[in-house]
């Protein structure tokens, strides 16, 4: 039975985990701070940064045949195999693009333009790269865009509300793995199973950018046709999106050099350093897995590591929400509201949204910064937030997104800062604290 409240890393492991990342306890100037905006760009693994610089420093072109070029080819191939390992995909095409957003536009446009059907299905919670791509190609191709509503209780999208929009004429379903505002995880396994029961050959694309750093992805259980993650939100570097396409999706007509194989998606020279970063990410997660499960199989170790990360993060989430015996959690702080607060933490990643009674979101974020805490406002004036917020009946929220290298003490510090902001705002407005 899954541990509903999670399981913290022990103190010794957590100390080593923290040491493997840059700037967990202070910014690059040395000022002490809490960085709780990992959903906007995660803490960087030291070894990923070092390895990127090392590999990228060589001028050699990996499409040559001399020794160093061949070594670069091996680095790239190992990164490709490690991307397959993350997705648990033995076949299909892995390709690197400048951003995951660009990759999703490419995949959506290719599939929507080549596959027969008169409608596309997505959800209201999609990142703009997915939603806008679906909207663009629906309009361009004269197809109907069908949008599943959100659930204001769970913070996600109900499977039934997606499935009821699918029929024999649906050519593409695009879904986000987890909300980047509420952290709610969609039941992807059930979505794929029930969608394909209606249309067995339905093409499905998934945005896993927010979910990938928090949980296991398994395309053997969720056989979709396209999926992406972004290394800069997954302990790595900015400058690439890593995507996978199924064999049938990869061979649809798409932008490529004519002489390349039918399933080849990379455009331009390869960047082996970006693939080296993927391998460093997998190496790190496998190292965590080694602390919990002994295995010679790299995927088994990776899964054990991601599960341990997920359990630690769930315990941090529980502490954020419920506090400790001596410290009130967000659910019990006066004049603070946890938005779209679903009780089942097994259905949530470590992202949550809050609001203050007496201070606007933008102002609250500045108050956090004055106290050495970085969070982010999601407001209805933002193109990245409006559609999702309005689906929940909200005008704004403060997004909190720690990472597994954060400690219980970090959470306690955040709760004290939040209580101080709430109390200070209440005093300014003459409100009564409870």
Strand content: 5-15%
How do the strands of the widest beta sheet line up side by side?
A: 2-8-7-6-5-3-4
Helix content: 25-40%
Shape: globular
Mean pLDDT, nearest integer? 96
Q: Can you tell me the residue ranges where pLDDT is under 50 for at least 5 consecutive residues?
A: none
State the major sheet. 7 strands, mixed
At CATH level 3, the topology of the largest domain is Aspartate Aminotransferase, domain 2
Strand-pairing-aware structural class: alpha/beta
CATH architecture identity of the largest domain = 3-Layer(aba) Sandwich
Brief write-up:
The chain has 434 residues and is an alpha/beta fold. It has 13 helices and 13 strands.
Sequence-ordered SSE layout with sheet pairings:
Elements: H1 11-19, E1 34-35, H2 46-56, H3 67-87, E2 93-97, H4 100-114, E3 119-123, H5 128-141, E4 144-148, H6 159-163, E5 170-176, H7 188-198, E6 203-207, E7 226-229, E8 241-245, H8 247-250, H9 272-290, H10 298-322, E9 336-339, E10 352-356, H11 361-370, E11 373-374, E12 376-379, H12 386-391, E13 396-400, H13 408-429
Task: Describe this entry's structure for a reader.
There is one protein chain. With 434 residues, this protein is α/β, with parallel strands linked by helices. The chain folds into 2 domains: 11-44 and 310-424, Alpha-Beta Complex (Aspartate Aminotransferase, domain 1), CATH 3.90.1150; 49-283, Aspartate Aminotransferase, domain 2 (3-Layer(aba) Sandwich). Helices cover 40% and strands 13% of the residues. It has 13 helices and 13 strands. It has helices at 11-19, 46-56, 67-87, 100-114, 128-141, 159-163, 188-198, 247-250, 272-290, 298-322, 361-370, 386-391, 408-429; strands at residues 34-35, 93-97, 119-123, 144-148, 170-176, 203-207, 226-229, 241-245, 336-339, 352-356, 373-374, 376-379, 396-400. The strands form 3 sheets. It has a 7-stranded mixed sheet, with helices on both faces. Strands 9-10-13-12 form a 4-stranded antiparallel sheet. Strand 5 (170-176), helix 7 and strand 6 form a beta-alpha-beta unit. The longest helix has 25 residues, at 298-322. It is globular and about 70 Å long. The model has no long low-confidence stretch (mean pLDDT 96).
């Amino acid at each position: 039975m899954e541990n509903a409240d999670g399981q913290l890393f022990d103190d010794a492991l957590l100390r080593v985990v923290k040491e493997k990342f840059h700037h967990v306890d202070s910014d690059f100037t040395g000022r002490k701070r809490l960085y709780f905006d990992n959903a906007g760009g995660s803490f960087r693994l030291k070894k990923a940064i070092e390895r990127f610089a090392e590999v990228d420093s060589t001028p050699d072109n990996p499409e040559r045949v001399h020794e160093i070029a061949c070594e670069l080819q091996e680095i790239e191939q190992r990164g490709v195999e490690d991307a397959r390992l993350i997705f648990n995909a033995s076949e299909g095409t892995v390709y690197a693009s400048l951003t995951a957003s660009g990759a999703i536009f490419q995949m959506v446009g290719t599939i929507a333009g080549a596959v027969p059907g008169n409608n596309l299905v997505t959800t209201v919670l999609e990142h703009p790269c997915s939603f806008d791509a679906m909207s663009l190609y629906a309009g361009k191709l004269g197809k109907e865009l069908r949008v599943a509503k959100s659930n204001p209780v769970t913070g996600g999208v109900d499977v039934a509300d997606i499935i009821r929009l699918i029929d024999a004429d649906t050519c593409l379903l695009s879904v986000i793995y987890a909300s980047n505002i509420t952290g709610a995880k969609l039941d992807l396994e059930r979505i794929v199973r029930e969608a394909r029961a209606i249309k067995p050959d339905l093409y499905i694309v998934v945005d896993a950018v927010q979910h990938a750093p928090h949980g296991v992805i398994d395309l053997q259980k969720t056989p979709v046709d396209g999926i992406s993650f972004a290394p800069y939100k997954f302990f790595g570097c900015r400058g690439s999106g890593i995507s996978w396409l199924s064999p049938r999706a990869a061979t649809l007509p798409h932008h490529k050099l004519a002489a390349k194989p039918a399933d080849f998606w990379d455009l331009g020279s390869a960047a082996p350093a970006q693939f080296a970063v993927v391998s460093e990410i997998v190496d790190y997660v496998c190292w965590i897995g080694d602390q919990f499960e002994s295995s010679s199989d790299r995927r088994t170790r990776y899964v054990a590591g991601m599960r341990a990360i997920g359990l630690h993060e769930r315990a941090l989430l529980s502490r954020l929400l419920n506090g400790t015996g001596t410290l009130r959690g967000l659910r019990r702080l006066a004049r603070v509201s946890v938005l779209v607060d679903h009780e089942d933490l097994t259905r949530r990643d470590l992202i949550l949204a809050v609001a203050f009674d007496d201070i606007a979101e933008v102002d609250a974020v500045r108050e956090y910064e004055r106290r050495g805490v970085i969070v982010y406002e999601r407001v209805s004036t933002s193109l990245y937030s409006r559609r999702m917020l309005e689906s929940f009946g909200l005008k704004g929220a403060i997004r909190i997104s720690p990472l597994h290298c954060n400690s219980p003490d970090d959470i306690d510090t955040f709760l004290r800062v939040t209580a101080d902001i709430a109390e200070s705002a209440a005093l300014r407005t003459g409100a009564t604290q409870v």
